[in-house]
């Protein structure tokens, strides 16, 4: 198993299909159907933004997943103390490769990156009805510290 930083936005756009379809199925009112061409163009632009890092997970030279992370710096102000974190935007593992430890390997790599940069906090969010994500992050000892709620009018 190999995890490396990637600049291959086309491959990430393909690997994004599983997570995007999952979100579109759970929340069709918010998510567009998966469109490889459009997502590829979006990732092409996102890959140019220096604060984002994409990690590619390969097993036997087969790309099986990725993580999209961001180094965040929250400056101190009169209301809050400053801190730094690694924010996980997305993790996507090919459907046929799930529940085999690949996601955990990506998370371990993210923890290692954070530690190497002197960062002691990894943050993320997931959609409320995504039970698989909830179970996965609970297994990794993530805890709630904020709630994001809405009200439909």
TrEMBL record:
N-acetyltransferase domain residues: 10-153
Gene3D superfamilies cross-referenced by the UniProt entry: 3.40.630.30
A Pfam family hit: Acetyltransf_1
Keyword Transferase carried by entry: yes
Keyword annotations from UniProtKB, A to Z: Acyltransferase, Transferase
Name of the molecule in the record: GNAT family N-acetyltransferase
Origin: domain of life: Bacteria
GO molecular function per UniProt: acyltransferase activity, transferring groups other than amino-acyl groups
């Amino acid at each position: 198993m190999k995890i490396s930083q990637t600049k291959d936005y086309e491959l990430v756009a393909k690997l994004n299909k599983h997570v995007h379809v999952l979100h579109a199925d759970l929340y069709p009112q918010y998510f567009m159907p998966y469109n490889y061409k459009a997502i590829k163009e979006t990732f092409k632009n996102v890959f140019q933004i220096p604060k984002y890092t994409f990690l590619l997970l390969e097993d036997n030279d087969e790309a099986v997943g990725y993580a999209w992370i961001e180094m965040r710096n929250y400056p101190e102000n009169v209301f809050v103390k400053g801190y730094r974190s690694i924010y996980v935007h997305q993790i996507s593992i090919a459907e046929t490769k799930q529940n085999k430890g690949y996601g955990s390997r990506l998370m371990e790599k993210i923890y290692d990156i954070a530690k190497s940069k002197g960062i002691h906090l990894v943050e993320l969010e997931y959609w409320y009805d995504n039970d698989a994500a909830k179970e996965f992050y609970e297994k990794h000892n993530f805890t709630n510290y904020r709630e994001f709620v809405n009200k439909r009018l």
